[in-house]
Design goal:
112 residues; alpha/beta; Hypothetical Protein Ychn, Chain: A; five-stranded parallel β-sheet; 35% helix
Chain lengths: 112, 112, 112
């Protein structure tokens, strides 16, 4: 089953809140079982760190089955490792590479 | 015939003007009859309300056949109904759901 | 071989730097020989002019094989011709038209 990738690069808390809401709103709109990934890179990876203002909204999204994918290129630039991420986040070698690979697999792409 | 969806989420008048121009510029570039939809959600739905600074540019886009699609999830959050929208705008249950559905149908996606 | 288009519309130097880095990071993630195009229109076309703060980063991207595609609709609005662009940049009649055409050809789309 092909899924949906949402692409986020900004650091803004307001933007993070909006995109998490967009992702949640998408859940009832797609076939049950459709994977939805929120892919963060560059300044946006702070979303995946503990103690953020968006922690509750992120937890709600993860509980709803949304997958948070964090770019390891961006993590390396900010001296972060997988151990620094919130429980439930996963990392991928390259955010942009991951987004291209998903489209090659037929996934839809959203840049909210 | 598959079409093109343009995705807009920002409230900025300058952004609205630019995206309306992008949509108009696209018309002569696609096969005649290709549907072009401008999908607005979140803060961007003010574009579809009467009395905006972009009213003339929007009227020109609608006259050129561009379809303005407004997210009903966002309308509900802002206490708006279809009766509040400019003549010619249409609504969809979910902006992000609509954008995914269009891509499933083979439409191209632009986020200007 | 289908490629990847990256879409850029903003004028900000910081944004230009980030997107050039995204493009470079993509090179090792795709199959060798995959074309990667950075398509600029609207305010973003200043990236393609000589003497910008991003000149070195752009040169590095062009050296890595990334193709810079500049919208001629936007050039016309800013009284620019091909002769004004940095060596190595190419122009297309319409930025948005080009992005749609590439997706029709199966290319992946990124809006970093």
């Amino acid at each position: 089953m092909t899924g949906v990738v949402l692409h986020l690069t900004e650091a803004s808390v307001d933007k993070h809140r909006a995109v998490l809401r967009n992702a949640l709103n998408l859940v009832p709109e797609v076939e049950p079982g459709t994977p939805i990934e929120l892919v963060v890179h560059s300044e946006a990876i702070c979303l995946a760190l503990p103690g953020q203002a968006t922690a509750d909204a992120l937890a709600e999204a993860l509980d709803a089955g949304i997958i948070l994918v964090v770019c390891r290129n961006s993590m390396r630039q900010q001296d972060l490792t997988d151990a620094d991420l919130v429980h439930g986040a996963v990392s991928a070698p390259s955010g942009v590479g991951h987004l291209v690979a998903r489209q090659r697999q037929g996934w839809a792409y959203l840049r909210p």
